[in-house]
Amino acid sequence: MSASSSAPLRVALLGCGVVGSSVARLLVEHSGDLAARIGAPFELVGIAVRRLGRDRSDVPVDPSLFTTDAAALVSRADIVVEVIGGIEPTRDLLLSAMASGASVVSANKALLAEDGPTLYAASDRHGVDLYYEAAVAGAIPILRPIRDSLAGDRITKVIGIVNGTTNFVLDKMDSTGAGFAETVEVAQSLGYAEADPTADVEGFDAAAKAAILASLAFHTRVDIHQVHREGITEVTAADIAAADEMGAVVKLLAICERVSRPEGEAVSVRVHPAMIPRTHPLGSVRDAFNAVFVEADAAGELMFYGRGAGGDPTASAILGDVVEVARHRVNGGRGAGESAYADLPVLPMGAASTRYHISLDVADRPGVLAAVAATFAEHDVSIETVRQRPGAPGESGDDEAAGATLVVVTHRAPDAALSATVEALGALDTVREVVSVMRVEGE
Amino acid sequence: MSASSSAPLRVALLGCGVVGSSVARLLVEHSGDLAARIGAPFELVGIAVRRLGRDRSDVPVDPSLFTTDAAALVSRADIVVEVIGGIEPTRDLLLSAMASGASVVSANKALLAEDGPTLYAASDRHGVDLYYEAAVAGAIPILRPIRDSLAGDRITKVIGIVNGTTNFVLDKMDSTGAGFAETVEVAQSLGYAEADPTADVEGFDAAAKAAILASLAFHTRVDIHQVHREGITEVTAADIAAADEMGAVVKLLAICERVSRPEGEAVSVRVHPAMIPRTHPLGSVRDAFNAVFVEADAAGELMFYGRGAGGDPTASAILGDVVEVARHRVNGGRGAGESAYADLPVLPMGAASTRYHISLDVADRPGVLAAVAATFAEHDVSIETVRQRPGAPGESGDDEAAGATLVVVTHRAPDAALSATVEALGALDTVREVVSVMRVEGE
Q1: C-alpha to C-alpha distance for A405 and A391, rounded to whole angstroms
Q2: Does the N-terminal or the C-terminal CB of chain B have fewer CB atoms within 10 Å?
Q3: Which Gene Ontology BP annotations are present (chains A, B) (predicted)?
Q4: Which residues of chain B neighbour A26 with C-beta distances below 8 Å?
Q5: What is the DSSP code string of B361-391?
Q6: What is the C-alpha separation between B285 and A14, in angstroms, rounded?
């Protein structure tokens, strides 16, 4: 078989945490299959770790492969697999790996979203591959479909549930009626949320993934600082109940949208919680699963669904990249590099076109609806539906006059106009409280 | 830009029906984007059609590009896009295209499932690409994820809803309660079924796709003649109602399964209707949509969802292949060729492990259940649930004694044992009729 006639490909692994040890184990377990699929055997030449001496008996490799000298390791590899994360020293290591001729497979969404172009430029300069399927949505093949399968189409929208922790929390809030804080505790106790859940619940993780998805989908550089970001910490049980009443669920969405304007196309990239109909393909994504919904001119609606995190699922995506990069080593060629030719402007959040669901506690007297409707009209925001219900949801001991609840769902409007409308509503003396404000997606 | 400095890539299009005219239109409309993504412009050098002189004003190309001489056309192309279909003369044309150095993008599932290895060998021999994403599940990127993204994993199962016509028919039967024949007429009137729907409703189309999926997933040659095939023509409204009672729907499934046996691994590849839980990701695939569910050791469960047919969706998949093949022309390299190293045996249907849902009209007297249960036991088939209900579903004018309905769902067993059980049940004198037999998937 040709596999044995080629020189072995030297693979270096940087990092040996949950994902790294899965990668090492699968490389060993599947070595025969991988060699047959690549057309050459490979050799694991080292695993860079922070400290030696830890018990790593779950990683079935010769213990002498562990090293703390990552810089020396990358200089003697054909393929460098990076699962350390973080910005530095990782960036330096990857740049030096590529400079010495190695192809890189990385799961580092933070680095790619912060400073991808530096890495892409290095990969072009040195003629090596830089693959990072595992950086977005774990095991789900999503970057390769966007970059390659849809390369002949025009993508108009990508909406992803790309953070498993927040989907788990929101799904549990939906099924139990519990609040945010107690549900996060449950998620922590089950291992679905970190002790410090900030990166997940504040949307930083999803924002990095949104930047990567938008860059690929729109052939435009988008970095994490251009992504509008709102987390789920302020989502209340009342918001979830309000969504349920209109047949919707609340999800943390990473939204990448192509926007047509008279002055030319632009893109909007944002992460925020939103209500989405239960009948939408993303509406039934439960637990910690991820899914990415894509709309393209010719293809229509597509959805990709699977596990977004965890050692083995992430390792699956990494090994797929390793095989493809290795095939290029054996057969020649390179994968597609960065494509940023379209160079579309990234809109500020205020210019994004969104819909709002607004729930108001109002005084129950004539003229209230007229005042509310006038406020929307003043801001050029068109109302889709209004529902009025006697009895405010406030405390029963309330000593004010009887109230009513007014639920308004708008048509699409610039986010700035919607946000100004909410502010103006709050100032109306007939509005006792703005109970809940949430965007609506997926019409 | 580098796009303009490279020589144009010559693209020949074979066929100009629904899909072909979408391909031509999108090639023209997106030519600027495609050139930027490829790194070189391309030139449409001709469109082979059966007859000249037809009105093709919907295809925005110079009419002089149409030709009936397909053989001459392929000899002057770098990339040949084939959407003619059928076995001959298509096979000869593609072989001659590859022999003259052209890469091929084809949507021809029948040819690939009938005689793929001849084409794969030609592509290897001449060092050209052979891509066919559009052959399975239309716009859904599924072959590339299986071939590349999951190349480092071990796929254990692929279950696809890969025929839009049958999914439309079964979904309508489910939502309306109507029978097969009248629903096919509705599908025909709406353009979802051909005047002669045989290829779809008898499962030939799905079987070709199953062969292609299994070949890629298991690195094993599987041709259409090795695929067990049952269509949906015998699915009744009673079957659909029986599925509904257990929270399931009936779908025509293309099932590709890796089977572990003491004597070594094997694969089972089959197309048949089956009940699947409504809560399964495939259970909510409505209308003419397609979806492919994949299980792999490390990745876990994945699903890919989208439009499986139609001019533009199919053209989207074709153009994605064209861009990738063109990138290889510009940057060097080739995509992965055929991978059949695993060479696993393909099991006959009788050896496949399945579950049955059996509905029996029985005499309502003591001892019936015991006789039925004994019949299952004699065939080593284990029962999961039995539900007994007085009152047979037969005509009210029935002059026999009162009957009862017995619904049995089995555990997994060899299909041959299940099928022999059903035959033996039919011969019991306490069983008046075997009302419905259907396999169950997706536990």
Answers
A1: 7
A2: N
A3: methionine biosynthetic process; threonine biosynthetic process
A4: 152-153, 298
A5: EEE-STTHHHHHHHHHHHTT--EEEEEEEES
A6: 41
Domain ranges of chain B: 2-136+312-331, 143-308, 351-440
Structure tokens at A306: 């699977």
- B3 versus A201: the higher-pLDDT residue is A201
Q: Tell the residue number behind the tokens 């997940």, with chain if given.
A: A200
B251 labelled ligand-binding: no
CATH superfamily, domain A2-135+312-331, is: NAD(P)-binding Rossmann-like Domain (3.40.50.720)
- A109-137 exposure pattern, b = at least 16 Cβ within 10 A, e = fewer: bbbbbbebeebbebbeebebbbbbbbbbb
pLDDT digits (tens, 9 = 90+) for A322-375: 999 999 999 888 888 899 999 999 999 999 999 999 999 999 888 899 999 999
Instruction: Note the pLDDT tens digit of each residue in B265-298.
Output: 999 999 999 999 999 999 999 999 999 999 999 9
Closest CA to B250 of B262, B226, B232: B232
- Given CATH 3.30.360.10, say whether it is the number of domain A143-307: yes
- Shortest distance, CA B320 to any CA of chain A (angstroms): 5
Tokens of A12: 């270096």
CA-based nearest residue to A10, from A95, A84, A103: A103
**The architecture CATH gives domain B2-136+312-331:** 3-Layer(aba) Sandwich (3.40)
Looking at domain B143-308, its CATH superfamily turns out to be Dihydrodipicolinate Reductase; domain 2 (3.30.360.10)
Q: Which residues of A touch B334 (CB under 8 A)?
A: 331-333
A303 three-state secondary structure:
strand
pLDDT per position as a tens digit, A216-227:
999 999 999 999
ipTM: 0.93
Q: Determine whether A209 is an active site residue.
A: yes
CA distance B137 to chain A (A): 11
**Closest chain B residue to the Cα of A302, Cα to Cα:** B306
Q: How confident is the model at residue A391 (pLDDT cuts 50, 70, 90)?
A: low
CA distance B69 to B383: 62
> For residue A375, what pLDDT is reported?
97
Helix and strand numbers, DSSP H then E, in chain A: 15, 17
Q: Note whether A23 and A60 are within 8 A (CB).
A: no
* Predicted local distance difference test score (pLDDT) of residue B2: 39
Nearest to B311 by CA among B22, B25, B15, B16: B22
Q: Write the CA distances from A105 to A19, A208, B90, B410, integer angstroms.
A: 13, 17, 40, 46
Q: What is the mean pLDDT of chain B?
A: 94
Taking the C-alpha atoms of residue A71 and residue A410, their distance in angstroms, rounded to an integer, is 55
CB contact under 8 A, A37 and B341: yes
Q: What is the CATH number of domain A350-440?
A: 3.30.70.260
**Pairing state of beta strands A228-229 and A300-307?**
unpaired
Of B299, B305, B324, the CB nearest to A139: B299
Sign of CA dihedral A85, A91, A96, A102: positive
What are the residues whose beta carbons fall under 8 Å from the beta carbon of B154, sequence distance 6 or more?
Answer: A30, A33, B258, B296, B297, B298
Give domain B351-440's CATH architecture: 2-Layer Sandwich (3.30)
